[in-house]
Specification:
Largest sheet: 5 strands, parallel
Strand content: 15-25%
Number of helices: 13
Shape: elongated
Number of domains: 3
CATH architecture of the largest domain: 3-Layer(aba) Sandwich
Structural class: alpha/beta
Distance between the termini: 92 Å
CATH superfamily of the largest domain: HUPs
Radius of gyration: 25 Å
CATH class of the largest domain: Alpha Beta
Length: about 400
């Protein structure tokens, strides 16, 4: 009788590297390793070879960078989704795409199990499993961190050593790092004490601000319906836009946040996130919306942006509410078209000008001078009506 199969979300990092031998020790299943390339800069040939070397019967390397940026990152950019004011959701964007690919390969291979290396305290276990169930609720999940005897990253390193599995971390350099084309995140180690200042030596994408270029860099982003399409007048692909802005932002020290966030599973956790392109694009998009959206739409979209970010952070990408918010966002973006120039200097991003054929700002109306559409005399009547409830309250209080 043929063995059953398990599809493993594989990165070649510490956790997933030891999961292959652990699965073979504890389950009578053939392991199919799947690495979804969303721009993590790993040597994919070596990732594939390592998976096979450590016991997988097959390894898939799926290049999903274009889909990741176009269908996930840029959708959230249009929505203005930022979790708890600072986190640009780099890990959160990637997990639903990965889950979708894992289900597709499980169906192709006839696998009834999907395994992931997410910890029992993290958000990613929720993101993976809710997304997987959204496509196929019959697939069974194996989550080693919730059931094995390994209790720490130090234990995991010891396990790898005992099983002759090479891993990219040591007990001296023990940060948990997640990288894709949008960001690099750092957790664990000395970051677990919020009293510690983080060490800039950990940076992967960004030059520390104090060591960044001494002269400012200007960059112009062109948008069509809320989507970036050009950098400095050059039309390039979504992946190229992010790649170019990562380089420009990184060398100017732009895009580092150190936050203590509220995890979905209940506790607070600290992360250092590098998101240079994202920081630039969010700033540019926000400035263009200020220019092209009316007041009520702009203010209501701010509420939607927060809810959208919470849905994405909580792993609810493939839900009716998320799809409905996308429809609202797309309507708001019909006229978010134009060019935004930004000034980058030692970690700062400031507006240096914006233009749009749909700009709602009219200098003739907004200036201090007279205009046909606005009479200074009208303001007096407006103020009296606007302040009427407060005048009535004062009259009652003064009786």
């Amino acid at each position: 009788m043929n063995k059953g199969k398990v599809v493993l979300a594989y990165s070649g990092g510490l956790d997933t590297s030891i999961i292959i031998p652990w699965l073979k020790e504890n389950y009578d299943l053939e392991v199919i390793a799947v690495c979804i390339n969303v721009g993590q800069d790993d040597n994919m040939e070596e990732v594939e070879a390592k998976a096979l070397r450590t016991g997988a019967i097959k390894a898939y390397i799926e290049d999903a960078k274009e889909e990741f940026v176009s269908e996930y990152v840029f959708k959230a950019l249009k929505a203005g989704a930022v979790y708890e004011d600072d986190y640009l959701l780099g890990t959160s964007f990637a997990r639903p795409l990965m889950a979708k690919k894992l289900v597709e390969i499980a169906h192709k291979e006839g696998a009834k199990y999907i395994c992931h290396g997410c910890t029992g305290k993290g958000n990613d276990q929720v993101r993976f499993e809710v997304a997987i169930a959204s496509f196929d609720p019959t697939i069974e999940i194996i989550a080693p961190w919730r059931i094995w005897d390994i209790e720490s990253r130090e234990d995991a390193i010891d396990y790898a050593t005992a099983h002759n599995v090479e891993v990219p971390v040591t007990k001296a350099k023990i940060y948990s790092v997640d990288k894709n084309i949008w960001h690099t995140s750092h957790e664990g180690g000395d970051l677990e004490d919020p009293a510690n200042e983080h060490k800039t030596e950990m940076y992967d994408m960004i030059t520390p601000a104090e060591k960044a270029k001494d002269e400012p860099t200007y960059v112009e982003i062109s948008f069509e319906k809320g989507i970036p399409v050009k950098v400095n007048g050059e039309a390039v692909s979504p992946v190229e836009i992010v790649t170019m802005l990562n380089k420009i932002g990184g060398e100017n020290g732009v895009g580092v946040v150190d936050i203590l966030e509220n995890r979905l599973v209940g506790m607070k956790s600290r992360g250092v996130y590098e998101t240079p392109a994202g920081t630039i694009l969010y700033k540019a998009h926000r400035e263009l919306e200020r220019l092209t959206l009316d007041k009520e739409t702009y203010h209501y979209k701010q509420l939607i942006s927060q809810k959208y970010a919470e849905l994405v952070y909580n792993g609810l990408w493939f839900t009716t509410l998320k799809q409905s918010l996308d429809a609202f966002v797309d309507t708001t973006q019909e006229h978010v078209t134009g060019d935004v120039k930004l000034k980058l200097y030692k970690g700062n991003v400031t507006n240096a000008g914006a233009t749009s054929p749909y700009a709602l700002y009219d200098m003739n109306i907004s200036s201090f001078g007279a205009s046909d559409l606005y009479s200074h005399k009208d303001a007096g009547g407006f103020i009296r009506l606007f302040g009427l409830p407060y005048r009535i309250k004062a009259m009652k209080n003064n009786k």
